[in-house]
Design goal:
It is a single chain. The protein is an alpha+beta fold and about 425 residues long. It has three domains: about 100 residues, Orthogonal Bundle (Butyryl-Coa Dehydrogenase, subunit A, domain 1); about 110 residues, Butyryl-CoA Dehydrogenase, subunit A, domain 2 (Beta Barrel); about 150 residues, Butyryl-CoA Dehydrogenase, subunit A, domain 3. The chain contains twelve helices and eight strands. It has a four-stranded mixed β-sheet with strand order 1-4-5-8. A four-stranded antiparallel β-sheet has the order 2-3-7-6, with no helix packed on it. Helix 8 packs parallel to helix 10 and helix 10 packs across helix 11. The termini are far apart. About 40% of the residues are buried. About 5% of the residues have low confidence.
């Protein structure tokens, strides 16, 4: 079998695939072998940890795992080699995400940097910005948060009110962001701010890179209905960032932000769907064990869930193959499909689990009492957490209403919704 030195970041995986027979099979086996050899010892206890609703779990240990991945060349696979990546093909990136999910490996802590900001800087950033920030995303020594949503502008990004004024060699920022995932554990935040006084909607916005330890930045965790606090509100009170830490020109913020959102719905969605498969399989197993599968309505809902997952996968592969009318429309369809499917699975889960799902487990649930990395000590089982956290799936990343407007206006050519 043809092999590849996986620890060598100089290897261009795309070039290697072009000259290696059956490269996909070789690459998939290499990923499986590496995960099998490395998810051992202390890392073995991290399997399945840190997913949505549980991002507080074992964060320091998962950060160590991510850095272990980086040292072995498994971060930023799709980035160009000249920017510290591996030049992996789309097929290889899909394989990696799928094999990673099948191994039940821990949720990554560097998603926003690796999958969103990094590609955005490669596309729109200056050479100086790329040299400053990309290496620290590759080796997972700096983590990023996303400063988009605001109390008065959630999914409506063009409605942001946070302002930034250029004062000599610094941007002075005032305003508030909300639902800022993992800001309390990050060093930097990419912020959409209004830099043209009197502007409105998508005009006059800029994309700024802001250190979260700067004077004038206050971060307050928000407790969710799951009891955990992955999200935060972030206040900027005359907070400052260097004048050269703007991506694109002043006023280019909308263009850069929309470019970043396209990266958000990329190949990692297929890995996400492997996790969905596992949840559904576990739920079907529960239904068979507790007799819920004999209920015709529940059996029908489980079958519809399997069909919905197949549709989701087919759409993702079609989108990645470029068989689309509109990139924005394709991204919105993808978000609608998985957000609604996952929310419905949460509701189905408690129907399958029955009355016990309405009762919280005791505080000394096995495997949780000694979890020193869970300071909030939230005692929910997997189905309760699924029900509660998936209420957010149709909101974060762009609400259902906004996604439908994008499809209607940009794909179907329908009249724009009236706006104030």
């Amino acid at each position: 079998m043809t092999t590849i030195n996986l620890a060598d970041r100089a290897v261009d995986l795309g070039e290697w695939a072009a000259r290696t027979p059956d490269a996909a099979t070789v690459f998939a086996q290499a990923v499986r072998d590496w995960l099998s050899d490395n998810l051992v010892g202390d890392f073995a206890s991290l399997r399945g940890r840190g997913g949505p609703g549980s991002e507080h779990e074992f964060f320091a240990e998962r950060l160590e795992w991510d850095r272990h991945l980086a040292a072995s060349g498994w971060t930023c696979l799709g980035w160009p080699v000249e920017h510290g990546g591996r030049g992996a093909t789309i097929e290889q990136r899909i394989i990696f995400h799928q094999e990673y999910a099948r191994a039940n490996a821990p949720a990554r802590v560097n998603h926003l940097g690796e999958e969103l900001l990094g590609p955005t800087l490669i596309e729109y950033g200056t050479p100086e910005q790329q040299a400053r920030f990309l290496p620290h995303i590759v080796d997972v020594t700096e983590l990023w948060a996303q400063g988009y949503s605001e109390p008065g502008a959630g999914s409506d990004l063009a409605g942001v009110a946070t302002s930034a004024v250029l004062d000599d060699d610094q941007w002075v920022i005032n305003g508030q962001k909300i639902w800022t995932s993992l800001a309390h554990l990050s060093q930097w935040c990419f912020v959409i701010a209004r830099t043209e006084k009197g502007s409105s909607r998508h005009k006059g916005l800029s994309f700024l890179l802001v250190p979260l330890d700067a004077d004038g930045v206050t971060i307050r965790p928000i407790q969710q209905i799951t009891g955990t606090s992955e999200f935060n509100e972030v206040f900027f009170d005359d907070a400052k960032t260097s004048s050269d830490l703007i991506v694109g020109e002043p006023g280019d913020g909308w263009k850069v932000a929309m470019g970043l959102l396209q990266f958000e719905r990329g190949v990692s969605t297929l890995g996400q769907q492997v996790g969905f498969h596992r949840e559904l399989d576990n739920l079907i197993d529960l239904a068979e064990r507790n007799g819920a599968a004999s209920d015709p309505e529940i059996a029908s809902r489980l079958r519809r869930a399997k069909v919905g997952l197949s549709v989701m996968e087919a759409n993702a592969r079609r989108t990645l193959a470029g068989d689309i009318v509109s990139e924005a429309g394709a991204a919105s369809v993808t978000k609608l499909l998985w957000g609604n499917w996952h929310r419905d699975l949460g509701e189905l889960a408690v129907a399958v689990a029955g009355a016990p799902s309405l009762i919280g487990p005791p505080a000394t649930t096995e495997g949780r009492a000694n979890n020193i990395s869970d300071p909030e000590n939230v005692e929910l089982d997997e189905w309760q957490r699924l029900l509660l956290f998936t209420r957010a799936d149709t909101i974060y990343g762009g609400s259902n209403e906004v996604q439908r407007n994008i499809i209607a206006e940009r794909v179907l050519g329908l009249p724009r919704e009236a706006r104030p």
